[in-house]
């Protein structure tokens, strides 16, 4: 009996009808994407835990998501596993973990007591985080980058914003009663952090190659890092409050350093004559 289809012949006349072949993908290319997926899962789990009133676990999940989201790109570059697919996944994870998740955790814990004002504050922060990430992607894709981009961020980076906006929750864990008055102050603080995200404030990044540490300070700095981690494990929310306050106090120092170099208080343009910023609508208007 004849079969309805001719037998398959490799590289034969019916080979093209099978469509594109599936290629084997090296495992190293999947590792960064797996980290990104885990980050998204952690961020969404933090939202669920917040709605279940398990706030401490919710904050831990959001911070873990932010940490994983912050290292996936570095892991990809280290393993030479960067890809356009991974970049799109990372952008999706960023808006979830740095925008949606922390805003909803703060809203469920505190801002809902401020009613509509609390929800508006959460919306403003989330949209600000999305705009900050979009601006970062636009600047990262420039062919000719300004020299200062390796040393300064334009506005507070989104990962830091996620850590900062959770300050009212840290204070609640330390015993500050989440009253209605506290909720209104929390809403104002949330809007402030959203403004810092989309501002033109120069924020020192510490990524420049010229940033070097004296040899005799290497061991003390490493020891200080160990002490910081030990305190973080033992007095988590106290240390997080101190970290947030220290970061906010450091912002004027970065702006002062920028002013000394370029003579302006904010990053209003490329600050580099070799960079053409004429077509950067986002850079000009945000």
Automatic annotation (TrEMBL):
PROSITE patterns per record: CDP_ALCOHOL_P_TRANSF
Gene Ontology annotations of biological process type: phospholipid biosynthetic process
GO MF terms, alphabetically ordered: CDP-diacylglycerol-serine O-phosphatidyltransferase activity
Pfam family for this entry, one: CDP-OH_P_tran_2
Compartmental location: Endomembrane system
Keyword Transmembrane applies: yes
Cellular component aspect of the GO annotation: endomembrane system; membrane
Domain CDP-alcohol phosphatidyltransferase C-terminal intervals: 217-252
Protein name: CDP-diacylglycerol--serine O-phosphatidyltransferase
């Amino acid at each position: 009996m004849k079969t309805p289809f001719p037998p398959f012949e490799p590289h034969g006349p019916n080979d093209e009808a099978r469509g594109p072949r599936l290629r084997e993908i090296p495992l190293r290319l999947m590792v960064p994407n797996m980290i990104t997926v885990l980050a998204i899962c952690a961020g969404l789990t933090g939202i669920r835990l917040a709605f279940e009133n398990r706030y401490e676990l919710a904050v831990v999940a959001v911070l873990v998501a932010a940490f994983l989201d912050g290292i996936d790109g570095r892991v990809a570059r280290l393993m030479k596993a960067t890809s356009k697919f991974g970049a799109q996944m990372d952008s999706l994870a960023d808006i979830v973990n740095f925008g949606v998740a922390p805003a909803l955790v703060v809203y469920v814990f505190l801002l809902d007591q401020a009613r509509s004002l609390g929800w508006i504050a959460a919306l403003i922060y989330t949209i600000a985080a999305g705009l900050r990430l979009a601006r970062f992607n636009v600047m990262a894709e420039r062919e000719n980058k300004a020299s200062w981009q390796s040393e300064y961020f334009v506005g507070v980076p989104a990962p830091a914003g996620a850590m900062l906006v959770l300050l009212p929750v840290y204070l609640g864990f330390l015993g500050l009663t989440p009253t209605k008055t506290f909720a209104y102050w929390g809403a104002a603080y949330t809007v402030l952090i959203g403004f810092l995200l989309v501002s033109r404030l120069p924020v020192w990044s510490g990524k420049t190659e010229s940033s070097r540490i004296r040899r005799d300070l290497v061991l003390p700095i490493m020891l200080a890092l160990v002490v910081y981690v030990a305190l973080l494990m033992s007095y988590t929310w106290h240390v997080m409050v101190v970290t947030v306050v220290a970061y906010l106090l450091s912002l004027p120092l970065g702006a002062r350093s920028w002013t000394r170099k370029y003579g302006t208080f904010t990053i209003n343009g490329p600050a580099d004559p070799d960079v053409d910023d004429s077509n950067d609508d986002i850079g000009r208007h945000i």
